[in-house]
Automatic annotation (TrEMBL), chains A, B:
Coiled coil: none annotated. Keywords: DNA-binding, Transcription, Transcription regulation. The keyword Cell division does not apply. The keyword DNA-binding applies. Residues 3-57 form the HTH lacI-type domain. This is LacI family transcriptional regulator. Pfam families: LacI (PF00356), Peripla_BP_3 (PF13377). PROSITE patterns: HTH_LACI_2 (PS50932), SIGMA54_1 (PS00717). SMART domains: HTH_LACI. It comes from Nonomuraea aridisoli. GO terms for molecular function: DNA-binding transcription activator activity; sigma factor activity; transcription cis-regulatory region binding. It comes from the Bacteria.
Length: 329, 329
DNA sequence: CTACATACTGCAAGCGATTGCCGCAATACC
DNA sequence: GGTATTGCGGCAATCGCTTGCAGTATGTAG
């Protein structure tokens, strides 16, 4: 039913090889022939069968992307950055959402890997050992998650976190809370350690709550814990939790940015749109995505056996309306 | 380098055909042989080459999904519903975000189509003619966009819109604004016509603004227009615009849900989390997604030449905190 | 006029699976 | 015990395209 290369060949009286070359390697064929082929292809409505092409050529011109949860606003900008960058290089991106099921990640990666030239996994949740199994299906790069022996694009939370604590102390806060993310989250470990270090360095008292899932609902739940405590400022594992927190606090009559300061992490698009606007630690997701694409593409072009590259990106605090002077005691 | 079927065949002393059957059609082979093959495959680390499998079998066990913008919170629930439903039936979903570039949609669809067994396009932005070209690459189903001659899952905005206007008039509002979505958006046309009809039916004065892009920023811009007008209630093309509107109005000291009522459309996850919570017209995205999957799968199983199915889903109003009695004049 | 590049194009061998058809042996039946 | 059945497994064709190699024609040089 569908038009194949052979049909075009027959229509033009040429061989399949020539048609193939005319279409995908124009320099190797006589300009006149090329045009004739192109015209015929167009007229017949020929669309190359990518599957066949991949099978014989060995590449797909696709890069695979695995994210934990597209509903989390942290990811879309990353995804878009990746798509844009890949598009620039003539690659298509296919996205898979594993819906926060760590168990699926590895398996999905294995399957997808067979259909793409390279893989990018953003913030994978699976255990280090399991991810390690994946390191071998090069090219693969892990974003926002350290996996020894594999290409990594990492985000260093320390700077931003230090800035955040510094910002709060400057505003007079002396006791603050950290709302933990998922217990097994690598990011949470990083962030938690960074804040503990920052608080210790700056002599601020820290209490912890959680773990909380990176969802608005969890922030709502967190709000009541915070409300009952005596902290004057809160740093949340991510913007979603911060947002849920703010909403719930507003309901209970707490004026965020006045009675209580809140800082989120990720600097997702929502943070500028909440009310009050959310002070947040900017995580360079888009840059990370673009870097990841460059790494994958690089690894595709010259697959070396050298130690895979590791890139570190930095975070910084973006101050908005949710942080203010500590209330007088 | 990679282990192939032939390798497993050689290792077991069997033929490739037998190995193939043992792996993908277990009943056609002796249990003992089957186990032997499985073990060998496991030991060798054999992973079937999906590309080859697709080429020869003609199917991919994948369904393609094209969405305009994953950053728009309206889509993730749909995407997840689609993935869940497809997963249940043993299919994988690959997502492509066309980033609101209508021009890309058709081309992307053509390309993707070659790698999947069926296609779902959610809220495509391209013109009807262009979409019509796609109708032929069956199975394909359009969600939230009517394309004559193709399978459709449509959402009827009329009910929800009527409820919304009714709700507002019951609260005493007599003059309201509609914030238009993108000019060429099919949904916007539907919604606009529905609200015009509802207002006419209920004797309410209507003013229109826009078009606005479905983004929070656009809502911010809309806010100033609304502020300067004399309406007491606003219905926005979607929740994002409504959210941006509310944020900006809050900044300007307008108490939404008191001085002014706001209704969004989509009932996206954000709406319950804003402050005040956003009254919104619930659009059954998840149901639409699931239905779409069922349609595609159905069309794959028995490709008929009959008129492709069209399913209509309904909307309803979900009242939250952003709507209240009209202020006394 | 022969000899040798040069430029295109065709041949045919894959890529790695699936699958219809056939043959063989073991089992069943009478 | 002879023949019809049935169950397994192998052969080989096929999916649609790419690509190394070889062949032919044209052009240039000697």
């Amino acid at each position: 039913m569908p038009v194949t290369l052979a049909d075009v060949a027959q229509a033009t009286g040429l061989s399949a090889s020539t048609v193939s070359r005319a279409l995908s390697d124009p320099d190797k064929v006589n300009p006149h022939t090329r045009d004739r082929v192109r015209r015929a292809a167009r007229e017949l409505g020929y669309v190359p069968n990518q599957t066949a092409r991949s099978l014989s050529s060995g590449h797909h011109d696709i890069i695979g992307l695995i994210v934990p949860d597209i509903a989390n606003p942290f990811f879309p900008p990353i995804i878009k950055a990746i798509q844009a960058r890949a598009g620039l290089k003539g690659k298509t991106v296919i996205i898979t959402d594993v819906d926060e099921h760590p168990g699926d990640e590895v398996q999905r990666a294995q399957v997808i890997r067979k259909r793409v030239d390279g893989l990018i996994m953003v913030s994978p949740r699976a255990s280090e050992e399991r991810l390690h199994e994946l390191a071998h299906l090069n090219p693969i790069v892990f974003v926002n998650r350290q996996v020894a022996g594999a290409a990594n694009v990492l985000v260093d939370n320390a700077d931003g976190m230090a800035e955040a604590v510094e910002h709060l102390t400057a505003l007079g806060h002396r006791k603050l809370a950290y709302l933990n993310g998922p217990r097994r989250s690598w990011s949470n470990t990083q962030r938690r350690e960074a804040i503990v270090a920052a608080c210790a360095a700056q002599g601020v008292e820290l209490v912890e709550y959680g773990p909380f899932e990176p969802q608005i609902q969890a922030g709502v739940r967190a709000a009541d814990l915070v409300y009952a405590s005596e902290v004057t400022a809160v740093i949340a594992y991510d913007d979603l939790i911060a947002l849920g927190l703010m909403t719930r606090l507003a309901e209970r009559g707490v004026r965020v940015g006045h009675d209580l300061s809140v800082i989120g992490i990720d600097d997702s698009p929502m943070s500028g749109m909440a009310y009050p606007t959310l002070t947040s630690i900017h995580v360079p997701g888009a840059e990370a995505g673009m870097t990841a694409v460059d790494l994958v593409l690089g690894m595709i072009e010259n697959p070396s056996d050298e130690e895979p590259p590791v890139v570190q990106l930095e975070t910084r605090l973006v101050v908005r309306g949710s942080t203010a002077l500590a209330p007088a005691t």
